[in-house]
Each structure stands twice: as C-alpha cells, then as structure tokens.
C-alpha cells in the first residue's frame, strides 16, 4: 500500500513546535508524526504527518495549516505533499548482503538460510523498507550488547525504541521470555517489523506500535522498562535523554547506538545529566554502542 506524507520545511526549533502543535491538534488520532533533519549546516528540518487514505488529505492539510498559522502567522511556510510509492527494496538491495554473526545471533537473508548452524539464534531479515538488516555497525553493536546484558541480567520487560526492522526486539525476545515493546515513528517500519517477527516465529510477546514520542499511550501502559534499546542517531538520542530516563526502572539498563565515535562524549554527557552512568562501550566500524545503568 502506498503512503502519503504532508510536511512543512522549517528550522529545528520550528519543526519541534510543529510536532508539538500537531500532536495536540490530532490527539489520539492514529497518525505518525516525525521531524527530520535535511541539512545540518543550513538548519533545515521537516516536520511530517504520514497517512494512507488519500481521502483524508484535504482535512488533514487544513488542520496542519491551522497549526502553522497559530505558530507562524498568515505567512507561514506551505504544507507540501509527497506520495511515497511501494518499491521492491528487497530486489534492489539483496545483492552483496552476507550473513552477519553478532554474539549468539546470526542475521541472514532468505537467500542464506543454508548458513544457519546448530545453536545459532538465527534472525531472518531481508533488505526492505526499514533500517536494520543487521549489516550496519550500529545494529551489530546492539546485538552484541544485548547478548552481553542478557547473559548477566534478568530484565522483566524491554523497550526497543526506533525498532526499524524489529531485529533488536526479536533478539531480546529470543534470549528472554519477557514482554517487549517495539516502537517507531514510521508506520511502514512497524508493518515491516511485525511481518519480520511472524516470519521468525515470534507470534507473541512483542507489541509493535507506531509512536512518535514518549507521550504515546503505549509507553505509559508498559513502563517502567528494565531494559531500553535505542539505535537511532546521536542528536535525537540526546534530546530523548530526559524522557528515556523517566521510563527506565530503577537499576535498569540502556543500550544506545547510532552514535559516531566522535559523538560518544556528547551522548554520555546528556545521559549523565539525567542520572545514568556509563558501564561499557563497544566500538565497530567508526560507530559506538553504549551500555548505561540507571
């Protein structure tokens, strides 16, 4: 099913204000909202709302415009539309992807099932419309850190924030029979992750939700979490530090990635400020994965 996106181009501050305004205006309506940095040096950002029913575009565009007018006045930037087509990313991306081992996990595509050995915790992920096939250094680092943490700890519930393909949520569930909440701002990613879980035989224990922020009801229902995993990017991770720490159980563990090596100290500083301490860092391909404790 193709998807639609209504968006406005502004700066970082404006994008955050638009996101808050849309959240308030739409209430509990099931739309995914997101902000995205387009050009860091020029401070160009987009604030977006995603939908699948074209008949809702006019009404949603009107709500969007009213939010912009309240924020910026009558000369506000325009609401633009993007039609997002269905693309066979699998056919485009499978070539060259090889099985990846990370801890006890083997992440592989459907074309490499023959590489699975007895004792492997095999996760089948084909290259698709969501981030996280297991081949990126950040995903590998998270899988290795999950393996390490779950050898030493017995969390009672977990959160995979920004789940992408769902690979990290599935990894937790394979190692520990605990409830896992897997969220993403992108409804396409959530659909992909849910389908991947079914493909890998995980039919219960993981709750997938499209959730644009910690104000979403899914977090309130499941928190506090003993283990939180967030493989996103450094700047969003730093902004999420207060909300993430508020949803962490006392003594809980946090795994963070999507962080370039040179960004490590900035991220650690943001999380030290909210009371989390550094335990371990894994380094891979210029990226780092951090383990923190509450």
Automatic annotation (TrEMBL):
This chain's source organism reads Martelella endophytica
Q: According to its UniProt record, which protein family does this protein belong to?
A: Belongs to the methyltransferase superfamily. PrmA family.
This chain's function reads: Methylates ribosomal protein L11.
Tell me where it resides.
Cytoplasm
**Gene that produces this protein:** prmA
Q: Which GO terms describe its cellular component?
A: cytoplasm; ribosome
Q: What Pfam families does the database record attribute to this sequence?
A: PrmA (PF06325)
Query: What is the reaction catalyzed?
Result: L-lysyl-[protein] + 3 S-adenosyl-L-methionine = N(6),N(6),N(6)-trimethyl-L-lysyl-[protein] + 3 S-adenosyl-L-homocysteine + 3 H(+)
Name the UniProt record assigns to this protein: Ribosomal protein L11 methyltransferase
